[in-house]
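Dear support,

Our group has been running a series of protein-ligand predictions, and this particular one with zinc ion is the one our PI (initials K.S.) wants archived with full inputs and outputs. We had some confusion internally about which version of the output was final, so please treat the block below as the authoritative record. The input we submitted was:
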Amino acid sequence: MATQCTHLKQIQNVHPNTKGCEECLKAGDRWVHLRMCLLCGHVGCCDSSKNKHATKHFHQTQHPVMRSIEPGEQWGWCYIDELELDF
Ligand SMILES: [Zn+2]
Ligand SMILES: [Zn+2]
Ligand SMILES: [Zn+2]
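Confirmed final output from the archive:
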């Protein structure tokens, strides 16, 4: 298992593309928590949400690094290394 994420250099200075989960907003669906892709600014819902759009975004795009955009939360996650990241 990796101890260090090798994808941090791919991170861009992104801002959330949408105020909520992009796909859930389109579908009129609900989410639990929001995660933002740090490569393109895609906002998706977490794995506690039934649609899991943040994880689906990774599988569709191979963008590996996301972070929580819940207020007060600083952590991120690399899907490839399966490592928690601190921001
Ligand atoms: Zn990584
Ligand atoms: Zn969603
Ligand atoms: Zn992305």
